[in-house]
Amino acid sequence: MTVDCTACGYCLPCPSGINIPNVFRHYNDITLFDDPVAPKGGYGFEVMIGMTAKASDCTECGQCEAACPQGVPVPEKLKEAVGALE
């Protein structure tokens, strides 16, 4: 896994409207399935229909990181996801 996110949802709601677990799911799918194309398309579709804000909309407020029981450095990993998905 690229990000050790269990999708517990404790990081939500994000003040910027980012569906953090879903962004990480798409980001992890790139590595898991060795396919950079399909996850990027799925993520782009969700952004397009308004299901989530873009990962690049993160303001690094830290609210999500403080709430994460797995200790994921959420803002840092969102920046990585931007490079792979946007």
What's the arrangement of secondary structure elements?
Elements: H1 20-32, H2 37-48, H3 63-67, H4 74-85
3D architecture notes:
With about 90 residues, the chain is an all-alpha fold. The chain has one domain (about 20-85). It is about 50% helix and about 0% strand. It is built from 4 helices and no strands. It has helices at about 20-30, 35-50, 65, 75-85. Helix 1 (about 20-30) runs antiparallel to helix 2 and helix 1 (about 20-30) crosses helix 4 (about 75-85). The chain is globular and about 30 Å long. It starts with 19 loop residues before the first helix and ends with a helix. The model has no long low-confidence stretch (mean pLDDT about 95).
Ranges with pLDDT <50 over ≥5 residues? none
Percentage of residues in DSSP E strands? under 5%
Helix content: 40-55%
Oligomeric category? single chain
Main beta sheet, described? none
Number of domains: 1
- Averaged pLDDT, please? 96
Round the Cα radius of gyration to an integer and report it. Answer: 12 Å
Structural class: mainly alpha
Number of strands: 0
Gap between N and C termini, in Å?
A: 19 Å
Shape: globular
Total of helices: 4
Q: What is the H-and-E element order?
A: HHHH
In short:
It is built from four helices and no strands. It is an all-alpha fold and 86 residues long. The mean pLDDT is 96.
Features:
86 residues; single chain; mainly alpha; globular
